[in-house]
Amino acid sequence: MELKNQNNNYKFKKTTNLKNKIINFNIVDGKKQISEICFLKCIKLLQKTTKKNTKNIVKLAIVNNLYLLYLKLLKKKNFNINIPYLINKKIRINFSLKIIVKRAFKSSKKKFYLNLKDEFYNTASKKTENINFKTDTHKLVYVYKNFSHYRWF
Question: In sequence order, which ranges of 1-53 are alpha helices (DSSP H)?
Fold first, then answer.
C-alpha cells in the first residue's frame, strides 16, 4: 500500500490550526479532552502502522476529499431545486474534515480512534467511498448546471 506523493496547491498555514479543527469536529457533549485523547491515539496508531509522515497522510487525506462544487437544495412551496455552487477555499478544508469525521462516526465496528485512523489512511490512499461519492456529486452538479443562474440564497 503505497501513498503517492502529490503536488498539492493547498497550503496549510499551521498544523496546530488543523489539529484544533479536527479536535473541534470530534467534540461530543462538550468534552474536548476526550476528543483530544482520541485524536492523539489516532495519530499514534498511524505512526505505528505506517512508515510515512503522519502530517502528510492527514493533509493528503484532506486534499483527496476536497469538494470544489456542491449542490444546495432550495425548497419552494411545491417543488425542490438543486442549485450548484462553488465552495470557498476556507470552507473546503472544513467541509472535507467534517465528512471524514462523520464517516468515522458512522462506522461503529470498532472504537472511534481506530475508525478515524482507518478513514485517514484509506482516504489518503484513495480507497474509500468518499471519493466515489465526491465524483458522483460533481457529475450531478454538471447535470444541474442550467439552474446555476437561480442563485438568490
Answer: 15-26, 32-49
DSSP 16: H
Q: Tens digit of pLDDT per residue, the chain (153 long)?
A: 455 555 555 555 555 687 888 888 877 778 888 888 888 999 999 999 988 888 889 889 988 888 888 777 778 778 787 777 778 887 888 888 888 888 888 877 788 889 889 888 998 988 887 777 778 877 877 777 765 565 554
Euclidean distance between the first and final Cα of the chain, in Å?
44
Q: How far apart are CA 45 and CA 142, in angstroms?
A: 39
pTM: 0.73
Q: What is the DSSP letter of 77?
A: S
DSSP code at position 44: H
Residues 6+ apart with CB under 8 A from 86: 68, 69
Query: For the purposes of burial, counting CB atoms within 10 Å of the CB of 28, is it exposed (0-12), middle (13-18) or buried (19 or more)?
Result: exposed
Buried b (16+ CB within 10 A) or exposed e, 44-83: ebbeeebebebeebbbbbbbbbbbebbbeeeeeeeeeeeb
